[in-house]
Amino acid sequence: MSARAILPVLLLLSFICSCRGQLRVGFYADTCPDAEATVRSVVTDAFNSDVNTASGLLRLHFHDCIVDGCDGSVLINQPDGQQENRAFGHQGLRGFNVIDQAKAQLEATCPGVVSCADIVALAARDSIALSNGPRYEVPTGRKDGLVSAISDANNLPDQDDPAEVLIAKFRAKGLSEKDLVLLSAAHTIGTTACFFMGNRLFNFRNSGGPDPSINPPFLQKLQQACPAGGDINRRIMIDAGSHLRFDTQIYANIRAGFAVLQSDAALYSHAATRPIVDSYLRSPAAFPGDFAAAMVKLGTVGVLTGSQGEIRNVCSSFN
Ligand code: HEM
């Protein structure tokens, strides 16, 4: 990362270090010195066998943080099936096995030290780096939450939400319009199931037709890829033409009507978010550092630290 790109990250880190004394870079330096290297190595192995690991782990971190804070609650499985990860908006989440593997290795070397919430945050950071995105330090020291309820995940940002609703949902978590635009650029990598495309392609806001903001030739391609009544599990790239490259092409696609997800397209329909999209198209060099800073900020949402929460033995169940 260039010196210019790294500045916002450094400023944000100093803010976090002063306001959240217990979340800090290098939290495990004494208690589990190889913690970050262990996570990196497990994520790298998984990425080398399946490149889609990266987008899965990046989305997992967002979904963990946006419901009840970054506390590993999305990882929990319960016998009654009423855990958070069963919520409608969490469909398609993946990467749980990678987190479990990293946790198993860490428990073998440093039992009871490294939280699942931190492993998720570190795995997202490593996934971005492996996808040639920005490299940044992750403040650690999160504790794992003691609650995981499907009802807490009812109000997730949804791909059908208009921009003002997305803005309000992000604000409720302390994230700004700029954070919304930056973090949505995570869609520069990864795929979506046709499941999420139906309304946008065939019944946009109950109009009986497609979203008019889609570029017409592109609409034809999307409708061919995800036909009405077709296989809802079929996956298509979100950042058309650039879904394995971490770059600002996603913003160019949004501006030109080539957004795949409705929530991304919505960013260009609102007076508060459109200029932010345009600003990164004008100054793409500002994007990597700002994106990294937004990721660090996302990773502080609702964290438990110190005597709060627990360090789980196994990420999918409470102790
Ligand atoms: C603004 C609100 C957002 C909405 C409505 C939204 C919605 C979606 C949807 C519907 C998918 C397709 C899921 C699937 O079919 O498996 C998706 C994928 C993805 N999302 Fe988001 N998203 C949002 C924000 C974010 C943020 C903030 C991040 C990360 C910082 C993120 C990261 C990802 C990634 C990496 C994928 C690809 C996942 C994969 O390939 O498995 N999203 N998102």
From TrEMBL:
EC number(s) per entry: 1.11.1.7
Record-level GO BP terms: hydrogen peroxide catabolic process; response to oxidative stress
Signal peptide span: 1-21
Catalytic residues, chain numbering: 63 (proton acceptor)
An annotated GO cellular component: extracellular region
Residues binding heme b, per UniProt: 187
Residue numbers binding Ca(2+) 2: 188, 239, 247
Reactions mediated catalytically: 2 a phenolic donor + H2O2 = 2 a phenolic radical donor + 2 H2O
CDD domains: secretory_peroxidase (cd00693)
PANTHER family linked to this entry: PEROXIDASE, PTHR31517
Record's protein name: Peroxidase
Source organism phylogeny: Eukaryota, Viridiplantae, Streptophyta, Embryophyta, Tracheophyta
